[in-house]
Amino acid sequence: MKKILITGAAGFLGSHLCDRFIKEGYYVIAMDNLITGDLRNIEHLFKLENFEFYHHDVTKFVNVPGKLDYILHFASPASPIDYLKIPIQTLKVGALGTHNLLGLAKVKNARILIASTSEIYGDPLVHPQTEEYYGNVNTIGPRGVYDEAKRFMESITMAYNRFHGLETRIVRIFNTYGPRMRLNDGRVIPAFIGQALRGEDLTVFGDGSQTRSFCYVDDEVEGIYRLLLSDYDMPVNIGNPHEITIKDFAEEIVKLTGTDQKVIYKPLPQDDPMQRQPDITKAKEILGWEPKVSRAEGMKKTYEYFKSLPEDELYKKEHKDFKDYNRV
Ligand code: UDP
């Protein structure tokens, strides 16, 4: 049985990856420090014999007994609100955490896939974004802690690949959505759906002309799965190229939820990228992958999930008190 370590396993993407690798017959070691992750996302797996959970912070030395075939490094805060609240942890998990996991991969002779992001392109001046684009990132802006940690993550991964001959994979993940996103993480999809469910107006930041391209989680997981098992060690964009303005997206949510909410406008956060759309030519050619789930279908499933949550979840403003996590 192949053994895989998944970090950030109790998070949104991590938990879906756990499900996928369990389904494929792997032995899954799930690791999370539970700062932004939630055990409820993986509790259905606890009874399985080929699943175990380690409550551990990967910025500290990581030890896993026995053999290991694969590592997926998905631990990181991943929403602008989160990395504003826990900037130092965000930097540490991308930098120190990645270093620890690369070291673990080296001693175990395991293949490692790291979760990079479209944020490494910053506020992009090339559109759509190809993997060759170097990006336009403000190192000292509020998003710098995430963007630069992820850029460092890519660099150190390629250094281990070239210097130590480690088998590495780099996925650049574009906006992904689906069940198990955190309702209060500030990202646009949970924010809009939460507002609709509470009967509040939908808050569009700026004039809403900025664009995003949203990928349903099952498609994202399929792309990551194929990349891990491929022979390709350069970065690959995995995302849905179907682009929409945030203003039009808000109107779609109003229709989807059948509510009579208004759309209201709030100031645009600093360094909020104006456009984002993946060029997925590489993923198509190398992995034979492209997204299959339409936004209408994916959003319907996502809305059903949020509707099924206990009502008090809707009114929780904070996930938890984050302030202690910035201590060294
Ligand atoms: N956004 C918005 N209203 C909200 C939350 C987000 O208009 O209540 C905008 C945000 O400014 C950005 C886009 O939606 O332009 C996507 O934001 P998100 O935080 O989901 O992801 P990211 O900016 O990292 O792509």
From TrEMBL:
Which part of the chain is the NAD(P)-binding domain?
5-302
Question: EC number(s) for this protein?
Answer: 4.1.1.35
Could you say which enzyme class this protein belongs to? lyase
Location of the protein in the cell? Golgi apparatus, Golgi stack membrane
Pfam families the UniProt entry points to: GDP_Man_Dehyd
Name the pathway it acts in.
Nucleotide-sugar biosynthesis; UDP-alpha-D-xylose biosynthesis; UDP-alpha-D-xylose from UDP-alpha-D-glucuronate: step 1/1
| Chain segments annotated as coiled-coil in the UniProt record | none
Q: List, separated by semicolons, the cofactors it needs.
A: NAD(+)
UniProt keyword Lyase, yes or no: yes
Q: Which domain of life is it from?
A: Bacteria
**What are the entry keywords?**
Decarboxylase, Golgi apparatus, Lyase, Membrane, NAD, Signal-anchor, Transmembrane, Transmembrane helix
Q: How does it sit in the membrane?
A: Single-pass type II membrane protein
Give the similarity note: Belongs to the NAD(P)-dependent epimerase/dehydratase family. UDP-glucuronic acid decarboxylase subfamily.
Alphabetized PANTHER family for the sequence: UDP-GLUCURONIC ACID DECARBOXYLASE 1, UDP-GLUCURONIC ACID DECARBOXYLASE-RELATED
Query: What is the recorded name of this protein?
Result: UDP-glucuronate decarboxylase
Which organism does this record belong to? Zobellia uliginosa
